[in-house]
Amino acid sequence: MGGVIIQEFYFRYPNDVSALILCSTGGRMRVSSVIFNSIKPNYQKYLDDLRVGSFYRKTSKKIIEGHILETAQIDPDVTYNDFQICNAFDTLDKTSSIDVPCLIICGKDDQLTPVKYSQFFHDKIKNSELYIIDKAGHGVMLEKPNLVNKAIERFIDNHL
User: Fold this and answer.
1) What is the pLDDT of residues 91-102, one digit of tens each?
2) With 0-12 CB in 10 A as exposed, 13-18 as middle and 19+ as buried, what is 21?
């Protein structure tokens, strides 16, 4: 959802943005019916499926369980509505108009927003850097925080 929010902000207020970081996101965010069909009738199933869908297969159980516990605090209706917003989101036709420096980060094993989404950004945004992190999924910022932070620090040092 963070990627959706920052892209919407950029396209509404481009003069207020000097650089972008797009992490685990895409220009179109279609959501699987499996996700929609599990949230309201069986939120626990949705939470259980996060173990497989959001993380690299060898990510520590402590990281995964912490994320699931935090996500479990969110009302299922809120989660459902957030996914509806993501599902309707589409800025593919505007992507090439992004004219600020852009860091694009993704986990190599992200199943929710696959690497091809990040590659699309990199191909369309002239002043962009693509950083693909091995052994990480959609939760790359939780799975590999040191690598994500180093990429961000390097990007800031080079562009801001």
Assistant:
1) 999 999 999 999
2) buried
